[in-house]
Structure formats: structure tokens, C-alpha cells
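Class, discuss our next protein.
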Amino acid sequence: MKNQKNPHSFVTQLADWFEKLTRNSRVESFNIISNTPDLNLFVKRDDLIHPEISGNKLRKLKYNILVALKENCDGLLTYGGAYSNHLLATAAAGKELGIPVIGKVRGEELNVQSNSLLSQCHSFGMDLRFLSRSTFAEEKHQSGRVEFEGKSYWVIPEGGANAQGIQGCTEIVSELAETYDYYIVAQGTCTTSLGLLVSIPENANLIVVPVLKGFDVLKEMRSLLNDDALFDLHQSKLIIWDQYHHGGYGKSSAALDSFISEFHSLNSFNIEPVYTGKVFYALNNEISVGNVNFVGKKVLVVHTGGVWAE
């Protein structure tokens, strides 16, 4: 950032910081509720990366922060809703790295005390601005350097959904010591799923589980990648399970809640109803009803982290 006395030293500091945190992630086996035997099921525990900058949030921030430094910006500016884990992650990263961060929040009726997540963002030093829903919708996809209130900021779209975010998510695959036949991930902005799609082996498949109702996966992925030739090259690896949204983003169901409770009794890590609960539920159901045959195959679920707030 502009105020860093030694930018080269700060780049090294950033690289070491990112590497240290991503080393917290590990691959381990897990148990499914379905009693199908002989399954090789594994999970990449990106939820272990950091308490607030959890999972794919760190990955989507990495190259955005590095390019902000390269562009000699004064700080970061980003967008999110009232319960946005992306806002919390960006605020926490800004605090740890000494980077000023402006967070634009959907909902002009809100304030820094509206919930614990916004309060925590504020305590981390994030300058929270509350926008009307119409203004937020107009601005939330902005990306790149902007001049704002007499200073320069690197703008990160809602959810970290830009080219830098995709680049960071490709490193999920490069960290793996082994290859897998199937990679499975919950899908929101498509940033993580695109990073996986373009980096998994050619003979592997990526299964995505959209958490939004009525989500046009192919359209949204193609639009965000903004490279039709590259998307066409990898599209054949993509499998879509789009019936597991349980009513839409942030919504749950009695079946999902019951599944999560039972899953926790069998495993040592937590899942939540917004993202990770839906992807493990989908996997369990597809196996149980016989839609997929993973016997003899290696399957990796990417745990994208997240902080679930009641």
C-alpha cells in the first residue's frame, strides 16, 4: 500500500503470511451417513485456514491484496450483505496486515451494531458504509482501481468474485499431494468452482452444488470467467447438482438440519446450512439413491469454510 515504507519487504511478508495460513489446511477422510461400503471420501479442510479469514475467503483475497499493493493503492473497498463472511474476512485481513478497508453493506437501515458480524467488522477497523439495496445492486460487481473520497482503492466485488479471486482458488488443487477422480464444492459466486474447474486434471470431474435457487450455473460461470474459449475447453468436466438449495440462499429445511446434526455425530469437523451442509447433504443423497457410483473412485469435497452466525 502507499504507506508501506518498503513495498518489497511487504510483498515478502504477504507471501509468508498466505503460505503460513494455507498450510493449516489438510486432507482427511470423513464418514457419510449412507451405509454404502468401500468409498474413498476425503475432505480438504480449508475451514482450518483462519478463524475469520476462513477457507476460500483467504484464497479470494490473496491476489486482490497483492495487486492492490502493486497498484500502489491506499486501501481496499469491498461489498457484502449483513451476514457476509467475505466482509468479515476482508476486515480481519485488513487488521492483520495494516491495510485500510472500506466495506459497503447492503441495507441503509443497518448500522455497526445491527448484528455481531457487523460489530466485529467495525472492531477490526473496517469503515462500514450502508447502501440502499438499489445502489448496492448497481455497485457490487465493480472490480479494480478507483478513486474514492480523494484516495485510491482496489475494489473487490461482493464475495471476491473477480479474476484475482479465481486465480487464488486455483491453488486449492496445486496444494494437493494426490489427484482425485471427483472434486465437489458448494457454489455461490462461482469463483471457487471456476478456480477448481480450470485446474483439476483433465480426466477428473468437478461437481458443483449451487446454494441459490434458480441459479443458471453455466451462464454465471461463463460470465465470471469472461473467457469463452477457456470455459468451453473445461466445461465437459462439469457436473451440476442443482436441486439441493433447500429453498434458496441462507435457507434451510428440517431434512438439512437433521442431516447436519447426524453428520456432526459421525465426524470431527463442523458444517453449516448455508454452504457446506448443502454440499455434504447432496453427496450423501446422490449416493443413497444410487445416482452415482463412487466405488473404486477417489472423491474430494472442498470444505470452503465460513462462519455461521445464528
